[in-house]
Amino acid sequence: MCTSKEAIENAAASVEMEGFKVSEQSKVWCEQLLNHEITFDQYLALALKRVGVPA
């Protein structure tokens, strides 16, 4: 079994193979979500704010 950090890196690599970029900040937020440090709603608000979409 892999760690949450390894799972995030694998998922990011897959997304990047499709031509998209995953920021380091987004990876941190994903890890916080997986570790129950933030809620999905908080994650979504942070991600939307990062790309300039009002939550």
Brief account:
The chain has 55 residues and is mostly helical. Helix 1 crosses helix 2 and helix 2 runs antiparallel to helix 3.
Highlighted features:
55 residues, mainly alpha
Describe the 3D structure.
With 55 residues, the chain is mainly alpha-helical. It has one domain. The chain is built from 3 helices and no strands. The protein has helices at 4-17, 24-34, 40-50. The longest helix has 14 residues, at 4-17. The model has no long low-confidence stretch (mean pLDDT 94).
End-to-end C-alpha gap: 35 Å
Alpha carbon gyration radius: 12 Å
Work out the strand percent: under 5%
Number of strands: 0
Overall tally of domains: 1
| Class based on secondary structure composition and strand pairing | mainly alpha
The dominant shape is flat
Bin the helical content.
Answer: 55-70%
Average pLDDT rating? 94
Instruction: Describe the main β-sheet briefly.
Output: none
Number of H/I helices: 3
SSE string: HHH
Low-confidence stretches: none
